């Protein structure tokens, strides 16, 4: 079963900004088993708009 953190990271990697906006109303930067957060994934995948959303959420 996919967790909310996994859905957020997938939305970041794939550029699904609407999903990301809705999902990030709560804390979204929990690390996965490898220590990667949504912020890390957005940076790694070059998803600048996703990174802006995450950083804008504080």
Automatic annotation (TrEMBL):
UniProt cross-references to SUPFAM superfamilies, sorted A to Z: Pseudo ankyrin repeat-like
Superkingdom of source: Eukaryota
Transmembrane segments: none
One Pfam family recorded for the sequence: Ank_4
Ranges occupied by ANK repeats: 34-58
InterPro entries associated with the record: Ankyrin_rpt (IPR002110), Ankyrin_rpt-contain_sf (IPR036770)
Gene Ontology CC annotation, any one: host cell presynaptic membrane
GO biological process: exocytosis
Keyword vocabulary terms for this entry: ANK repeat, Exocytosis, Membrane, Neurotoxin, Presynaptic neurotoxin, Target cell membrane, Target membrane, Toxin
Identification of the protein by name: Uncharacterized protein
Organism, scientific name: Euroglyphus maynei (Mayne's house dust mite)
């Amino acid at each position: 079963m996919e967790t909310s953190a996994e859905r957020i990271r997938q939305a970041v990697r794939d550029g699904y900004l609407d999903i990301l906006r809705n999902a990030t109303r709560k804390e979204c930067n929990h690390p996965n088993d490898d220590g990667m957060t949504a912020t890390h994934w957005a940076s790694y995948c070059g998803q600048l708009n996703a990174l802006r959303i995450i950083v804008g959420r504080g």
